[in-house]
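Pasting as-is:
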Amino acid sequence: MPMRSATIFERVHSGLATAPPYVFTVGVPVLGLVVVGLWWLWPTLSVVAGLILLLGFGSHIAWLRRRVRELADRDPLTGVASRACFLDELHRAVVRGNRSDTLSAAVLDCDDFKSVNEQHGHAVGDAVLIEVADVLSQTVGHGGTVGRIWGDAFGILLPGFTMEKARSLLREAEERLQARMSAHCWPVTFSIGVSCQGELITTASDLLADADALMFAVKRGGRNGIACRGLQDERSAGTDEPSPEFARQP
């Protein structure tokens, strides 16, 4: 009998935790009135109803906390990590990398994205960003993190990746992205900067700023390419100072 009771309790808790919000906005006040009414007629049953009411409050609060965390951690349009979540992941990865492992990070920016919005509308622009996020997430997999760090720019975090390995993966991502853009007839290319943690780059802000500077160097050199510190792509220009756009980010 105790095992049966425990199983029923767990099922009730699970059901309440996943129930839609209106169940609580309507059901909890009604159940509260039932508890008060039962107290005068059947005290034992009112205690059981009161426990269910408390369980409902607790489950609803837990659901709200999870929902708030999801909204804070995910970019609402693309579903990848938000800028704040990405920067937190980058900071933690840099701390781990300083101890034992190598770490690469990249910034990818969509070339001519403004013209897509102007010529085809913002709905198409949103579709472009969703496709980019999907391709990057599939290419990077579970070993890395993709985040939308501002506008049409994405950050890619690659723990355990050397510069050469990171460039190889991002070249693969670029090829997949170009195929996806061509399939939709969207005139979008991609400028990518890749940086690797080292003696001169020891903090999260330095790593991302360096990748950002390399990305802008690609743009100034003609766009549509990949630049790595010391491993210049044939379509890339030299490096440049970190962009003002990234410098404004906290």
